[in-house]
Specification:
The complex is a heterodimer of chains A (171) and B (588).
Chain A: E1 9-18, H1 23-33, E2 40-47, E3 52-61, H2 63-74, E4 79-84, H3 85-88, E5 91-102, H4 106-117, E6 121-126, E7 129-136, H5 138-148, E8 153-158, E9 162-165
Antiparallel strand pairs in A: 1-3, 1-4, 2-3, 5-7, 5-8, 5-9, 6-7
Chain B: E1 5-7, H1 8-18, E2 23-27, H2 33-40, E3 46-49, H3 53-67, E4 71-75, H4 79-82, H5 85-93, E5 98-104, H6 120-123, E6 130-133, H7 140-152, E7 158-164, H8 165-169, E8 171-173, H9 193-205, E9 209-213, H10 215-220, H11 222-235, E10 239-241, E11 256-259, H12 266-274, E12 277-281, H13 287-290, E13 301-306, E14 320-323, H14 326-339, H15 350-360, H16 376-387, E15 392-396, H17 400-408, E16 417-418, H18 429-439, E17 444-450, H19 461-466, E18 472-477, H20 482-491, H21 507-514, E19 517-521, H22 527-536, E20 541-546
Parallel strand pairs in B: 2-3, 2-4, 4-5, 5-7, 6-7, 9-10, 9-12, 10-11, 12-13, 13-14, 15-16, 15-17, 17-18, 18-20, 19-20
Antiparallel strand pairs in B: 1-8
The chains are: A alpha+beta (171), B alpha/beta (588).
Chain lengths: 171, 588
């Protein structure tokens, strides 16, 4: 048999789950137990009446692995729906980062200019530091953080990717 | 919902009774005493006291597998709960419906490292189908009903419910099972009709088809086995079964090629390798079946029927997946096959059957007879001959004896064969036999064991004695961990590292010390009489058969080899490489 070399791709998968004790541990345990990658993961309650949470996970693997990940997620008992946004059509992905930069003088001014170019907002300011808030694709956030590194980057806090399909159709 | 207020223990027992539970396998301890006190006051649910909590889970597995019902386990917190982990993992791997009730320290103490506290829902998250920690007594009954629903629906499995002591002693109201529906878990039972129709067309065209069926057929229920046998005869196809599927169709059927896989038959494995259409039904392409996957059945189109979508394309890519319950899908296949206007020509299968008969002629399960030593294969053949006409259930431990049992004991109907397939748990067979015997008190229940495995849960003989459960433990004693020794002989230069049992108990005296019957036999010509005495005894029996210590289990596909790289018998020079793929042939 010919050995098929399959390409590893990133997929953004949304998992609608009951917001019950241990549900996140179940999802994370599935990834670690079966050796799948988690590149980013976010979770929050999205429907307080029905007690539903949405987990957005960015993972990578060959098509066979991605298919397994979705099937394995689907058979977890508290999972209502698994949706692979990467294959299901156009969607929007966003991530938020808080970026702390400490600098004085020229570098302080330059960090402010760079932040303006990236449309980052200042959410905290002292005489020797800024905290910027930036929203966008993960690539945009990566670029902003790279630009801030020589300007006195101190700390970064990122949310991980959240995503939603375009158009009127629900999940 | 009734307004009647009941204690948590009463609620629990009412829920179990409403789920049709007649027996639980368990072991008491501190935090579950309120529940044991309530058990004491009633007669509806029987409690079987095991001697180790692992035994309770295996007993519940034996009960579940021989009846098709959910097996129930009841243990205390901490060590009681952690001792169930192996059994739960075993049930998960083999898809056995179990509800395991564990005590827990009071909710106010959870997280405080209290006495006999263990985070059992955390520990068992990876080895249960689902688990629950009950924190609200008004959700207790609902949770129990959900647990039974999850355990038996779709691909069955173990579900654990952790019960803090204050939940068992508190007061709440009851909800009946009819009022409980599950929010998210609704497995697909009915297969996609268009896919089934496509499968039937593919089967009608196939020249070298093969049905490869497994435990999913057994789990789907007796209707699935009947439908499979009917479909087998309608199509005239050959069939092979996995270790978990033995008994799904009668072993005496002329179209049955024997077991597939690492210790499967020559004809079954070469048919897997050479078929042009593989129809996998309720089987999951386990590595012990496929061997090296990149050399697995290279020329076949593959259809896969399974209730669990995660089994599709997991180990082997298939061409046509059908997600659904086996009985349901087979029923539809039968009606579509019948409805075909153009009857498939059976003549097209003749060359394929001719080839299979040639492979069969190799008689791969033959072994050199001996009149001095009892060959283990001979011991199992005689056990089969002397028990085949009785109402017999067989369990096994894990190792060589298990594979010889799978090869030489012929099962004519489903749910008669209980073995630890996926996890390969030594110590499974005796407690499983106890569970089977509890469910079928009048039947003959035999645990085919090895001398090493039986020591892993030997304490359960006391359980069998206490409840007058006349299980028969048929110990083939070669003084080795036979399968370990076999691999060491074949793959590790004969360096028998830690696989020899230098010291062993006197099994006859051991049986007597427990209050059971002990028998021993070491001569081939005394074997039949010993087996007859074992069968006749109306008590638990440890029957020790001293077998040829150097015997190995063949055929064997070494781990990482392909189906056409099978070893058929003993050899001296390590594993030779495969013969050419064209003749599909083999080594000695």
């Amino acid at each position: 048999m010919v050995k098929i070399v399959e390409e590893i791709r990133y997929h953004t998968i949304c998992v609608l789950v009951d917001n019950e004790a241990g549900v996140l541990a179940r999802v994370i345990g599935l990834f670690s137990g079966r050796g799948y990658n988690i590149d980013s993961l976010t979770v929050a309650e999205v429907d307080p009446n029905e007690k539903l949470s949405l987990i957005t996970v960015v993972t990578s693997g060959t098509p066979m692995i991605i298919e397994q990940i979705k099937a394995q997620l689907g058979r977890l008992v508290p999972v209502h729906k698994v949706s692979d946004l990467t294959v299901e059509g156009p969607h929007v992905e966003r991530e938020l980062a808080l970026v702390k930069v400490a600098a004085t003088g020229e570098k302080r001014g330059e960090s402010m200019l760079t932040a303006n170019i990236f449309r980052a907002r200042v959410v905290d300011s002292t005489s020797e530091s800024f905290v910027f808030e930036i929203v966008g694709s993960s690539e945009k956030l990566d670029a902003f953080i790279r630009a801030m590194t020589p300007l006195g980057l101190v700390d970064v806090s990122r949310t991980g990717v959240v995503a939603i399909a375009r158009g009127a159709k629900p999940l | 919902m009734t307004n009647e207020r009941l204690s948590g223990s009463q609620l629990l027992l009412k829920a179990l009774a409403d789920q049709g539970v007649d027996v639980v396998f368990g072991y008491p301890g501190g935090v579950v005493l309120p529940l044991y006190d309530e058990l004491f006051k009633q007669n509806r649910i029987r409690h079987v006291l095991v001697r180790h909590e692992q035994g309770a889970v295996h007993a519940a597995e034996g009960y579940a597998r021989s009846t098709g019902k959910v097996g129930v386990v009841l243990v205390t917190s901490g060590p009681g709960a952690t001792n169930t982990v192996t059994g739960l993992t075993d049930a998960l791997m083999d898809s056995i419906p179990i509800v395991c009730l564990t005590g827990q320290v009071p909710t106010s103490l959870i997280g405080n490292d209290a006495f006999q506290e263990a985070d059992i829902t955390g520990i068992t998250r990876a080895c249960t189908k689902h688990n629950y920690l009950v924190k609200d007594i008004n959700r207790l009954a609902r949770t129990i009903h959900e647990a039974f629903y999850v355990a038996r629906s779709g691909r069955p499995g173990p579900v654990l419910v952790d019960l803090p002591k204050d939940i068992l002693t508190g007061e709440g109201s009851y909800v009946g099972p009819e009022l409980v529906t599950h929010k998210s878990y609704h497995p697909v039972v009915k297969g996609e009709t268009s896919s089934i129709a496509k499968a039937v067309e593919m089967m009608a065209e196939a020249k070298r088809p093969l049905l490869y069926c497994g435990g999913g057929v057994i789990n789907s229920g007796p209707a699935a086995s009947e439908a499979l046998t009917q479909f087998l005869h309608m199509t005239g196809f050959p069939i092979t079964l996995t270790l978990m599927g033995l008994g799904a169709v009668p072993a005496s059927d002329g179209q049955y090629l024997g077991m597939v896989g690492m210790h499967g038959t020559y004809e079954a494995n070469l048919a897997m390798h050479g078929c042009d259409l593989m129809i996998a039904i309720g089987s999951r392409f386990d590595d012990r079946v496929t061997g090296r996957t990149n050399a697995f059945s290279p020329h076949s189109t593959k259809i896969h029927v399974d209730i669990d979508p995660s089994n599709i394309n997991k180990n082997v890519m298939v061409d046509l997946p059908i997600v659904g319950d086996v009985a349901n899908v087979l029923g539809e296949m039968i009606s579509l096959w019948r409805a075909r206007t153009k009857r498939p020509d059976r003549k097209r299968l003749e060359p394929w059957w001719k080839q299979i008969e040639e492979w069969r002629g190799r008689k791969c399960l033959n072994y050199p007879p001996s009149d001095k030593l009892i060959k283990p294969q001979y011991a199992i053949q005689r056990l089969y001959e002397l028990t085949r006409n009785r109402d017999t259930y067989i369990t096994t431990e894990v190792g060589q004896h298990q594979m010889w049992a799978a090869q030489h004991y012929k099962f004519e109907s489903p749910k008669r064969w209980m073995t630890s397939g996926g996890l390969g748990t030594m110590g499974y067979g005796l407690p499983a036999a106890i569970g089977v015997q509890v469910a079928h008190p009048e039947s003959l229940v035999v645990d085919i064991a090895g001398d090493s495995s039986i020591m892993m849960n030997i304490q359960e003989v006391a359980t069998a004695v206490q409840y007058h459960l006349p299980v028969k433990v048929f110990i083939t004693n070669n003084k080795y961990m036979g399968m370990v020794r076999q691999w060491q002989e074949l793959l590790y230069g004969g360096r028998y590292s830690q696989s020899h049992n230098e010291s062993q108990p006197d099994f006859v005296k051991l049986a007597e010390a427990f209050g059971a019957v002990g028998l021993r036999c070491d001569k081939p010509d005394e074997l039949d009489a010993t087996i007859e005495r074992m069968i006749a005894a109306n008590a638990p029996v440890l029957c020790e058969v001293i077998v040829d210590p150097s015997e190995n289990c063949f055929p064997m596909i070494p781990a990482g080899a392909a189906h056409n790289e099978m070893l058929l018998g003993p050899f001296k020079d390590g594993i030779a490489k495969s013969a050419s793929e064209n003749d599909g042939m083999v080594l000695i």
